[in-house]
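Sample intake — Phage tail protein
Collected from: Kocuria dechangensis
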Amino acid sequence: MDKVLEAVDTAVNVQYVVTLDEQSLGSFSTCEGLGCEVVMETREEGGNNDFVWQLPSRLKYPNITLTRPLGPDTAKIASWFAALATGYDRCTGLIEARNAKGVTIASWQLHDVVPVRWKGPSFNPDQPKVLVETLEIAHHGFAAGPTGQN
């Protein structure tokens, strides 16, 4: 019996495309912080010395940090942060992991995205390197979790 090997599309050479309420912020080279944690509360029961009850209480989502080389899309982030001076409405975010061919491998839709921090490049003539920017966002969870492959 011959085995047919299928090509598996892995997340090698991935870019992360970020969209907020249908407005693209461009693509990023790294994405850290996608995840979820169940916060556990402990309760001690009188007379029970064998264990401590661990009860799930709520979900906790870490901030997401995205980085990329400085480029034309930097202006999109600058205008997004500049708009915060007049107030801010939470928005829905979408992060798509795309392979080198531009095919979406996985995507995450985020509830109530809020910008936390933008950090521009460090200019140091003693250490020439690629100029990068970092964007940190907070959110209140995944709308539907990973949507899978398209």
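Post-analysis note: The longest helix spans residues 74-82.
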